Amino acid sequence: MAAADELTFHEFQEATDLLAEAPDAATTSRSDQLTPQGSVAVAVGLGDGFGGEGEAEESDTAALLQGEEKPQPGFWTFSYYQSFFDVDTVQVLDRIKGSLLPWPGTSFVRHRLHSRPDLYGPFWICATLAFVLAITGNLTLVLAQWRDPSIHYSPQFHKVTVASITIYCYTGLVPLALWGFLQWRRGIRERVGPYTFLETVCIYGYSLSVFIPTVVLWLIPVPWLQWLFGALALALSASCLVFTLWPVVREDTRLVAAALLSTVVLLHGLLALGCKLYFFQPLPLEHGAPPLQATNLPPTALPPSQPWPPTSS
């Protein structure tokens, strides 16, 4: 209590000195300020000039905290697409891991993307898959030539173009069709909430990452093992798509949901099957017809000589 009384005495003493120096000053009591029991907080205002700088500082701080909204860049500018590639290595590896290990009840968008889809991972996954397909397809033919020298091999560089067009068109057009269909179904059933187009592209891009090691394993010249690796890769990749799309389509009718998911799996299977049959087929054997060999026929076997030109009877 003695310390509180001494503090109160000093506060009143300072207020008295200020009032003596400026008789026109106003005193106010701030009830919302925490003060010791039995003491009164006195605030002294020395005209309009006192506290002016504080008000200016407060207004500047509020302006900085609020900030001015920057205009969004147009889609034709580089800054617009720069945000789609704003992702680090840890995030990309985590999303690839999520696509390789799908789990029921785990949404890839919710647990991996966190509403921040990117195009960096899908772009390089598709590019890597296209080059690996073309390279391993050529290596398969080289290995076949080593086993059978009668096979004639020539580098097939056009496979790089075919693989790139196929992969990028699939990753762009199929998500576009899926997103458009879900938008149409949303207009019919309001509870159907589709992902954004960028999220759909991101899902498809990361789902293809499992095919990169699978294509390398297809170099093993064992047909049944190649088909087994392809089936496992297709199962993992399609499961990632189905588990991610199920929370969106489950609010629709059972028929539409089943047809949509079946179509997604079917298109994914056709992509894997087409890559297997086109890029990993051996070259046809180019056995030339054996040349005709002249043999010594007996004189009796030779046909009788006729005059030339033949005479008409």
UniProtKB/TrEMBL annotation:
Regions that span the bilayer: 119-142, 162-182, 203-221, 227-248, 255-279
UniProt-annotated location(s): Golgi apparatus membrane; Golgi apparatus, cis-Golgi network membrane
Membrane topology: Multi-pass membrane protein
UniProt-listed InterPro entries: Yip1_dom, Yip5/YIPF1/YIPF2
Pfam families, alphabetized: Yip1
Top-level taxon in the UniProt lineage: Eukaryota
Keyword terms of this UniProt record: Membrane, Transmembrane, Transmembrane helix
Keyword check for Transmembrane: yes
Protein name per its UniProtKB record: Protein YIPF
Species annotation: Echinops telfairi (Lesser hedgehog tenrec)
